[in-house]
Amino acid sequence: MITLGLLEKNTFLEAVNKKSGTNVLECYQCGKCVSTCPVSGYMDFPPREIMQMIKLGLKEECYMANSMWFCLTCSACSGRCPREIDVPAVMEAIRHLAIEENYRSENKKVKDIRKFHDIFLDMIKRYGRNYELRMMAEFNIRTRNLFKDMHLAPKALLKGKIPIGHESTKSAKAIQKMYKLAEKLEKDMK
Amino acid sequence: METEVKETQGKIFSAENPGITAPTDWQPVIMGILCNWCSYAGSDLTGTSRIQYPPNIRIIRVPCSSRVDPWFIIKSLQTTADGVLISGCHPGDCHYISGNYYARRRFLVTKKLLNFIGYHENRIQFSWVSAAEGPKFAKVVAKVTEDIKKLGPLHRYKKENF
Amino acid sequence: MNKLTYFPGCSAHGTSEEFDHTLKLVMQTLDVQMEEIPDWNCCGATSAHVMTENLALALPMRNLVLAERLENKTMGIACASCYSRMKGTKKHLDENPELARRINTTVIDEGEYKGTIDIKSMLQYCYEEIGLETIKSKVTKSLSGLKVACYYGCLLTRPKDITLFDSPEYPMSMDLLMEALGAKAMEFDFKTECCGASFSISNTEVVESLSGKILEVAKESGAHLIVVACPLCQSNLDMRQPDIEKHTGRKFDLPVMYFTQLMALAFGYPEKELKLPKHIVSVEAALKHIGEAIPEPEKVKKIKKAVEAESEVE
Amino acid sequence: MDYSKKIQEIASKLFADNKINYFVGYKQNSFDDSQVPFLITDPAEIPKLVFTDRSVFNLANYLKPDHTKRKRVGLVVKGCDSRALNLMLTESQVKRENIYIIGICCEGVLNEKGEKAQNCVECVMPDPVVYDEMIGSPTGKREYTINADIRELATKALEERADYFESIFENCIRCNACRHSCPLCYCAKCCIDQETSTLYHGANTSSGAMHALMTWSLHLAGRCVDCRNCEKACPSHLPLHLLHKQNESVIYENFQQHLAGMEKDDRGAFYKYSLSDPDDFIL
Amino acid sequence: MARVGVFVCFCGANIAGVIDVPAVVQEAKKIKEVKISIEYKYLCSDPGQQIIREAIVQNRLTSVVVAACSPRMHEKTFRKALLDAGMNPYLLEIANIREHSSWVHQKDKKAATEKASDLIRMAVAKSIANEQLHEISVPVTKRALVIGGGIAGIQAALDIADARIPVTLVEKSPSIGGRMAQLDETFPTLDCSQCILTPKMVDVASHPYIELIPYSEVIELQGYVGNYKAKIKKKASYVDFSSCTGCGACTQKCPVKVPNEFNMNIDKRKAIYTPFPQAVPNKPVIDAEHCTMLLKGKCGICAKVCEKGSINFKMVDEVIEREIGAVVIATGYDLWDPKPYEEYGVGRYKDIITSLEFERMVSASGPTNGVPVRPSDGKVPKNVVFIKCIGSRDEAKGIEYCSKICCMYTAKHAILLHHKVPDSHAYIFYMDIRAAGKGYEEFVKRAQVETAATYLRGRVSKIYKKGDKLMVRGEDAQIGQVVEVEADLVVLATAVIAPKDNPALARLLGVSYDKYGYISEAHPKLRPVETAKAGIFLAGCTQAPKDIPDTVAQASACAAKVCGLFAGDTMKKDPMISTINNEFCSGCLNCIKVCPYQAIVTEEIPLGHGSKEIRTVAKINEGVCQGCGSCVAICRSMAISLAGFTDPQIINEIVAI
Q: Shortest CB distance from E464 goes to which of C168, C217, C299?
């Protein structure tokens, strides 16, 4: 049971609204997003419930949920939302807030997804571009699941689906500089 | 609910009246122009609810805030009043459909113009008070009175009495 | 000759080489000169904006700045995901000039961001700039007999205020393009359902379920193959198909082709140019349908007869 | 900017075609290089017509009161003048079919010091917005900037401003030249002259002048086109534009960037409203 | 010289308990115009009024100031006292020293007393400028115009006509009956719509006080309350109604088939047609857009078969004029087109229909003889999914508001479906069930329990085809799961919207309408059946979505308003309205632009004394002006003054203290 006290100032709601540029209070719980969302079945709380949790100021519950990590940002929900709420933006806001405030879900899938994104960004940092085979391999090593998708590899490689060599932008340095500056900017903006 | 305003103590310095100080027992006069359907009814409700507010306001009844010509404000400031409060229906509630929208435009321009030529903006105030907002009317009057007490008596352009 | 700035995206040089290749062939036929952005970088894909705000804007901005230097009016983007990132970023930056100025400082070495370039997906470019009439005129080998299900994916037409192209729910541009090539576009309800793209590696379970549903409905529609305009869709639907078949126990056997491959075919390029061996699900059987006459379904015949009979009575 | 020849040609043609009874333009002053408004009924006087950057006055003023209801008039207008004309048309003060408007794409006129006048520097619309014939090439609408004097005064302390304006009002001699020179002050009887209204405070005092000038500027708020005829007419050289420009800037910033007379059928800002007008100044 | 009497009331202890009344009375005496200043315990009592009456006569007072409670309380009482003393009642002013002083400054008696004196000074000063005013009487033409012949218009017309007031009922289509005629059975009682409506339609046709003008439109309205003049365009019907017997031979033989809009285009009608069998008047009209004779000059079969020779292909539109005193707007509603719901495949799937289409199908007299069928293959559906809030409460695709009636008619449809196809099942996707109304919740319960309709709480997100079924996907929030329903037929409860012609009609009538196109009422709570323009009333869905009971109630309310308006030969009006001084009016006509009631018109007057030339000035229409004073404050030349609140009166108040 959750006890709801006097919600004098729902700072969580304010933070989410500000970051997402949308007003969560507009949600009237019709659930169209839930049945639209291709991954709502995998989420701890589907988008409709997340909206209500934000309204109730249940910050930690939101941060620890896997919902925003599962969001594919396919925008199907926001396109159909009768109140024109940008649901992916809300998910993204919670995600960023959770990262900023150092909340880490112990859910294996969430960890995998986070790891994937980290590797991906790291890859771009190093080469400026993404290189799929390396990406797959690194992901499998880091998630200790060496043989995942391995059955695909020979076929894909054989057919030339996934090339072995890889390229990088000439000015990977410029990218690295950009990373640094962007990080700094992020700090400054806080 | 009782609203009381403390007597302002000591000397009062007014921006519009440099060098002029007011006697300590000075009380400002505030000209209140209220629309009949919302604010006047609201001020009546303040009375029937016995909500107390400072006695400085003198109320004039007009049918609608749109009846208020800006020169009523100027005239008040030049003659009897130290400040003006004009109150009407909330946007969308106007008894005459759209009167307060026209009034709102004139009020903004008038307030800014008077401020521009040297009146403190707190001397010209506006409020939306509905017929149900008795407590709000008392609060508004208390605030306006307090603001104008801080500013002190108005002397400029009052050199000759009408 | 039209000139076009071209942003291929990482997968064009990887998994979707056939897309990149056939696109270049098709554009040659259509008399469009493509100028690839020199030294472009990854747009950041989903990962960047999932994790950080500024980087998600900085990565596409670098490409935009580089593209502006080429001084073409329009930039064409092959990959739907890149397209969405770049166009979304541009809209966001254009609406917040102050933010744009700040982000610009991270890539200032490349130049100043002006926001002058018009971004289009390659499908959009074919449909809006080149036009179906021109495309029709270049067809030398009609694809009649081939039934296709056009799959747009999520990002080509969504969100509507960013893409400003076609309907987000039931787009028709690719269908009309296929009809222009002579193929028959089937009624297909899952045109814009998500295939799970960004979880392609990290969460294959989701991808298989989503892509499975799409394949199922596409099969239902009676199509011989699925046409796509996005490398991520292609690889999810194609590469994962055997797995999906294994898990669901249903046989789909639905090849997944890029619209440019079919265009190239219709424009008379030999099959070897399509790089068909790269497909996990074999294309051969499907392409054999080209030239077949499509019979009128029984139901339609019946209804037509009934209508005629009724009108005679009156 | 010298369109004298062109205007003379047009005027001759208008008289020749019997399209007009009057023509209102500018004439060179005999004693200095300034110009004065010039009303012609006789085509023989056409050669005296001039138009240069010294043609400062707003000639729309000569259409009041009601002249055009009986006579047909040819008229030279600059951008700002044409905006005033637009308002006179909306407010049914002139008959459109009875005026022939020669609109000048104005490059700015000079002040008495020979510099480009301040209102021309800050001009938002140098091209005529209503005309039958246009002279020069239009350069389009410009960005609105808040008047430099207003900006400067806004930074001053309240009492300083109060003193400044009191000194202005003290110098007003209540001659009403401002009113007579304004094309939009066409009232049958000005409120200031009405004995029945207690508005008029006859004494020639700063408070009387303050009341009159404030009322006047509020009557022109959302209508004034910044032609500055009033200022040119003022014998005391009062900076009357301050009041108008202040109102204009408030109206521009708060009421959907309204600028008087820019469009056909534009009403003054006080004769319309928007639901989204600012409400935050109201308690 | 003014002679003012001041009367100060104790109001028991209400005033006297705080304010030093004798001191106030003395203070008032110091004002030079004040001839008499007295106090009394209760001025509003009979003896109190007697004191005022006597003082007026004895002191030959020119105006009276009563210092007592709020004018909103006893202004009428004291005005009557003045009248009884032979004085113009508008020479009264009230100083509100109770609500504005004694009750709100109870702790500061001195200040309260000073304030009371000031308020009296202000009232005295104002009263000096008061003028004698007289109630305005406006003559009335006792005939009402009802626009729209649906249930709202029918009810209003019948009620007005029953009071022996002539009514002109204008209907756009060939028959009255409106939307209600299209319905099968009505909630919550399930009585047959035709059975309760048709008798009323017949009554309209036969009522001696009702002039029914079908197939016509109002094209102009001039004048003001009690004195309107309306122009009505009778569209050419090409059938002479006076001789036509309505035998129907022409409609049988006509070879041209057109989609039947009465049946929501499910079947066909002819080019010469009566909209439905019970139509009133039961006379056919020719649809000029489809008749081959009118289009190409060939055919003319109807004329050949008509025994009475009633067909006249040369008929043209005719404009008639009526003088009327009041108008009732009852233009009804339209239904929203669900095309924007692309995710449902609206337009692509034939088996997605709107609720009105379903209504026509289940109607016993409908195109499918009362059995719902799938438009695609004509089969009777077993699983039917009803989706509510299509377009309603959807600002992204439709409109923001709730259409009010869909919850109820969807419950009705579920019940009707069960009646017509007993082995069927209804699934209803809803967001909220709004069943406020007499017997409504019970009715929904009937759908849920007796009919066992499955209610699923959620908005449907997608419909796709699987075989010949439609898969309807939505969340059922009650179990927190996404569900898919295999449907044979999907029925969309489309939103109620304002008729698209409403704004144009509102403009020509001079009434205001909201952003949705609904006609605006004068006050949302206290004047819900009046428009802001005096003498124009509204009934039914032209104002906002309504069900039948509400519509009928409002129509009767309109009738009561019209009858009240016509109760005397003239109407009395408060004299506190604006007047224009021609001499000062410069004719800028900005007052016309700000007047919310269109009470200001133009007038042409001589330019000067004896001048032949004219100038245009503004003129207040006394019958329409409501006295808000908007025009007064914007009139730069101060040509307008508002009686009771003139500039001198207000300025006197300002400078009095």
A: C217
Domains of chain C: residue spans and CATH: 2-123 (1.20.1050.140), 141-287 (3.40.50.11810)
With touching defined as 3 or more inter-chain CB pairs under 8 Å, the answer for chains E and D is yes
CA pair distance E16, E29, nearest whole angstrom:
18
Domain count, chain E: 5
Whether residue B5 is predicted with pLDDT greater than 50 in this model: the reply is no
Q: Is residue D282 part of a domain?
A: no
- For D38-61, write each residue's pLDDT tens digit: 988 888 889 889 998 888 899 988
Domain boundaries, chain B: 30-151
Q: Are E338 and E451 part of one and the same domain?
A: yes
Backbone angle region of E80, left / alpha / beta, with phi > 0 → left and psi within -120 to 50 → alpha: alpha
Considering only residues C196 and D171, tell me which one the structure prediction assigns the higher pLDDT.
D171
Whole-angstrom Cα Rg for chain C: 21
Q: Is the pLDDT of residue B14 over 50?
A: no
pLDDT above 90 (res E537)? yes
Across the interface, whether the CB atoms of D271 and E590 are under 8 A apart is answered: yes
E255 and E110 housed in the same domain: no
- The ipTM (two decimal places) reads 0.66
CA distance C91 to C162: 7
Percent of chain D with pLDDT strictly greater than 90:
25
Domain residues for D71? 7-135
User: What confidence category does residue E498 fall into, taking pLDDT thresholds of 50, 70 and 90?
Assistant: very high
Same domain, E468 and E398: yes
Percent of chain E with pLDDT over 90: 65
Q: What is the mean pLDDT of chain E?
A: 91
> Both tokens of residue E527?
């004047």
Nearest to D210 by CA among E551, B119, E234, A129: B119
State both tokens at C208. 């298989």
In a domain, E310, yes or no: no
* CA C91/CA C106 separation, integer angstroms: 18
Per-residue pLDDT reduced to its tens digit, E502-521: 999 988 887 888 889 999 88
CATH architecture for segment(s) B30-151: 3-Layer(aba) Sandwich (3.40)
Number of neighbours of residue D140 by Cβ within 10 angstroms? 8
Residue E492: which domain range? 334-497
Contact C78, C155 (CB under 8 A): no
Question: Is pLDDT at B13 greater than 60 in this prediction?
Answer: no
Measure in Å the smallest separation between the Cα of D218 and chain B Cα atoms.
7
Does the beta carbon of C159 lie under 8 angstroms from any beta carbon of chain A? yes
Q: Do E111 and B55 touch (CB under 8 A)?
A: yes
Q: Enumerate the residues of chain E whose CB falls inside 8 A of the CB of residue D199.
A: 638, 647, 651
Distance from CA of D190 to the nearest CA of E (A): 5
Could you tell me if D184 and D224 lie in one domain?
yes
Question: CA-based diameter of chain B, in Å?
Answer: 47
Question: Do the Cβ atoms of E103 and B43 come within 8 Å?
Answer: no
Residue in chain C lying closest to E348 (CA): C187
Q: pLDDT tens digits, residue range C33-84? A: 998 888 888 888 777 777 788 888 888 898 898 888 887 888 999 888 889 8
Distance CA D48, CA D44 (A): 9
Q: Is D161 exposed, middle or buried (0-12, 13-18, 19+ CB in 10 A)?
A: buried
A82/E482 touch (CB, cutoff 8 Å), yes or no? no
pTM value > 0.80? no
Please compute the mean of the pLDDT values over residues E145-157 and round it to a whole number. Answer: 96
CB D79 within 8 A of CB D99: no
Q: Please report the pLDDT score of residue B4 as a whole number.
A: 39
A18 and A93 part of one domain:
yes
D166 located within any domain: yes
Examine the domain organization and report whether D131 and D13 are in the same domain: yes
Please give the interface size between B and D, counted as residue pairs whose CB atoms are below 8 Å apart.
126
Q: Which residues of C touch A149 (CB under 8 A)?
A: 201, 204
Q: Out of E257, E343, E377, name the one closest to residue C169 (CB).
A: E343
Question: Of D88, D112, D135, which marks where a domain is finished?
Answer: D135
**Residue E138 falls inside a structural domain:** no
Give residue E231's pLDDT.
95
Give the best residue of C106, C109, C155, C158 to mutate against chain A (max A CB count within 10 A). Answer: C106
Using the predicted structure, report yes or no on whether residue E611 has a pLDDT greater than 80: no
Chains with 3+ CB–CB pairs under 8 A to D are: B, E
pLDDT score, position E546 = 95
Residue in B14, B69, B116 to test binding to D, most D beta-carbons within 10 Å = B116
Asked whether the beta carbons of residue E583 and residue D188 sit closer than 8 angstroms, the reply is yes
Q: Which residues of chain E make contact with A40, given a CB cutoff of 8 A?
A: 475, 482
